[in-house]
Amino acid sequence: MKKLIVLSTLTSAIVMAGAYKIPEQSVNSMALGAAYIAHTTDADSAYFNPANMSFLDPEVNYFEAGITLAHLPKNNFEGTQAGIPMPADAESEIENLPIPYMHFVMATDNRWRFGMSTTVPAGLTKRWKTPIQKLYAEEFTLKNVELNPVVSYKVSDTFSIGGGIRMVYSEGKVYSDGGALAPIKREMEGDTIEWGYNVALAWRPTEDVAVGITYRSKIDLNEEGQANLYLSGIGRQYDASVSVPLPAALNIGISKTWNDRLTLEFVYERTFWSAYETLDFEYGTPIQPALVGAFDDPKDKLWEDTNTFRLGLTYQYNDKLTLMAGYSYDETPILEEHVSYELPDSDAHIFSAGFKYKYSENLTLGAAVLYDKKVSRKITQPTGINGEFSDGGAVLLTAGISYRF
Amino acid sequence: MVYLLRSVLFAVVLMVTGCGDLDQPSNPQVEGGEVVVSFDQTLMKKTLIKAGAADENTTVFGYTAYKIPYVTTDEEGDEVAVSGLMVVPTGLPEAVTQQIGLSLVSDDHGTIFANDEAPGVIGEKTSAPDGAAIILTALAGFVTLQPDYIGFGDSNDHYHPFVLKKSLANATVDFIDAAKTFATANGIKLNGQLFLTGYSEGGYAALATLQKIEKEGGPEVAIAAPMSGPYAMNEMAMGVLSQPELTVPSFMANVGYSYAKAYGKVLTDVINEPYASKLATLFDGSLNRTGIDPQLTTKTVGADGLFNPVIVNDFFTDPNNWFKQAMLENDVHRWAPQTQVRLVHCMGDDVIPFAISQLAEGTMKAYQAADVSIVPVEIALTGDPATEMRLGHAECGKYAYGVAAKIFGEARYKLFHY
After folding, report:
1. B339-352 as b/e: b if 16+ CB within 10 A
2. Mean pLDDT of A238-266
3. A234 and B127 in contact by Cβ < 8 A?
C-alpha cells in the first residue's frame, strides 16, 4: 500500500476554477483572479502569455517560484439518492494541498526569447467517507504537472507572437466502495505523459493599452494503469485505462493603464469542456460480470463549453509596493443531470487580492489570497441524486519570490 | 531536448506524486489455495431471492469458494498439474462447523468446451457463486468439490480426456484428497461423510470415481448419485453412430478426438478431413459448444460426414475394433458397486436416454450390486409415478441436483441430525 499513502499525503490536485482546471499559477495571477493575459509583467508571462516575453527587459533573466496552499472546505450535501431508502446527507473531506510553480524567462539580444514554466494546470480531488457517496466516489483524484517551454518572437515594437510545447504528466486515482450498501469496490490508479501546445499574441496599440490572446490546446489524459475490482471482498486486478480531457481554452484580455500606476484588465475565457462526453473505463480483459454495470459501462458526462469573466486591478502604491485585487465569475460545465459526487461543481464567484514588495533591485516578494465561493446547487435527477450541494469552494494562499539577474 | 525536458519534469513529478504500480487486491490469504468467491449469508440470500431461487423463509448459507491446485494422473500415466473449486458453506451453527463437521459432496461437472466454463475458472473470473454449488452448498449446506478435470483450469494446455474413465476418476479422487488436506490446513472441520454426484459427463465421472475407489481403495463413500451420465459408452456410441444425423456434433467429435489421443491412434482414421485438422483448435478451450458446432458437419458418417466410414463399419462388424474395445473398456456400469447407488435421470432426457440408466441399473444388479436403483427426476418432483411431466437434458440439471441434494441431506440427517 506504499503508493496509496504517498499519493494521499503528497497530492497536488484541487478543485478550483470551473470543474478541474486551475488557471492561477503565480502571485500575480492569484491576486488578480487570473485576469492576467494582456498585461503580464514578470517571469509568469512565460505561462500566461508567452508573447509578452518580448516586452520584458531583454537584458534581464526573470525567475519566479512559489507555492500555493489550497484549503478546500467540506462540500455539504442534503438530500437522497434514488433507490436508497435513507437520507444521503453527507460532508466531503476537508483537503489541504500544496501546489508548487516555477517560471523562467531568459534574457535575449535578438527578437527571439525563450521561457519555461512548470505548473499544475488542472486537478481534482474529492473524498467522501459517508456510505452512499463512497459508493460513487470514495476518492476521485486527478493530478497533473505541466512543463511548458515557450518562445516569443517580437514582430514589431508593438506586436509579438509566442507559443510552446506542453508536456503534461498526469496521475489519476479512482476509488469507490459500496460498503454496507453494495458489495462492490474499485481501486484504480493510472498515469500518463501527454503532449499539447499553446500559442499567444500580444499587441500594444498604445503605451497604456495592451491586448493579449492565448490558446491552450486540448490534451486527452489517457490514464493507463491497473484496477482492482472487488465483489463481496474478493478482488481481481486488471490492466485498466480511462481518458479525461484537459480542455482547450481561449483567453482574450485587454488592459488599460493610467499614470503608470493603475492597471485594469478584463479577461474573457472560453473553456471547451464539451470535449468531455463520457467517462469510460476500459479493461484489458473482461471484468467480473456482476460489476460491469457499476464499473465498465460508460457514464455520460456531456459537459458544456463555459465562459469565465475576469477583472483585475493593479495599483503601484510606491516604488516598492504593488497592490492587486480581482473578481471573476466562473461558469460550471456540468449540467444538472450529470452532477455526481466526484465533482459536485457549480458556478462560482471568485474574489482575490495580493501584493508584491520589492525587497531589493533583484528580489521581489509577494503573496496573494483567493476565495472561490461556489454557488449552492439543487440537483434533481430521476434516477440519481436529489438534494442540494452547498459550501465547497476553496481558499488559496500563495507566496512567491521573483528574482531578476 | 526531449530527454532534458523529461528529466526536469520527472524531477518535479517526484516532488508531488508517488511511484510504482497498484498493489494486488487484498484478498483473504489461505494455505494451499486461493479464495475466489466469498458471499456471506445475508448477501447470498439477497442474491438468491433476487434470482427467484429462494424466498424469505428459505434457509440459505454463505458461500466461500477456494480454487485449489493439485496434481493428478492422465490417461498416459503422466502427472498433470490441475485445479478444482472447493465451496464451503458459512453461517452454519458452531456445533456443526466446530464439533460435528461438514459433509462433502464431490460434484463432477458436465460436458464443457470453453475453459471459461470450468468451475475454478468461473469462480476466479466472476467472484460470484455459480452452478450446482449454489444448490449443494448455499441451500443444502454441503462442502462441494468440483474438479476442473484435466484439460481445463490450470491444465488448459492439456487435451481434455472426454468420457475417459481412468483420468476423470483420477482427477476426482485426487481432488477429494487435496481438498481434505486443504481443509485440515485451513481449519475447515469435516465429518468424514462423502457423497459422489455429477451431471452428464459428470455423472459418468462420478460412477467411474466410485468404481476406482471400490477397486483400488480410498475414502468411504456414503452414497453415489450420478445423474444422467453416458455410463454405457459402447451402447451410446452404437446408438449415435447408427443415426444419419448428429444433433450435437461437438459431443461425438470430442469422443473421437480424445479417444484417438488416449489410444495413440491417427485422428484421420476416426474423423474425416477437413474436420480432423480443426479439432485441436476447436477443443483448445477458447470456444464453447455454440462456437464449435457450426464448424462441424451434422452428417454422422460418410466421405462428407464427421466419422470415417471405415472405422464405423469396423465398429459395428468387428468385435476387436480398437474403438469398440476402447468404448467397452470405458463403460462404467459393468461391475458390482457395494456402495448405495442412486441413478438420477430425467425420463424425458433427449441427449442421454433414460434407457442408459435403466441399462446401468440392470447390469449392475446382474453383477450383484449391493443397492442400486433409479430415481426418475420427474417422479421425484411430482411424487406421482404416472406423471406425464418430461424434462429434457438441459433443463433437467437443476432439478436433478435438487433431488440429489435431498437424498444426501436425508443421509446426513440420519447420521448427524442436521
Report:
1. bbbbbbbbbbbeeb
2. 95
3. yes
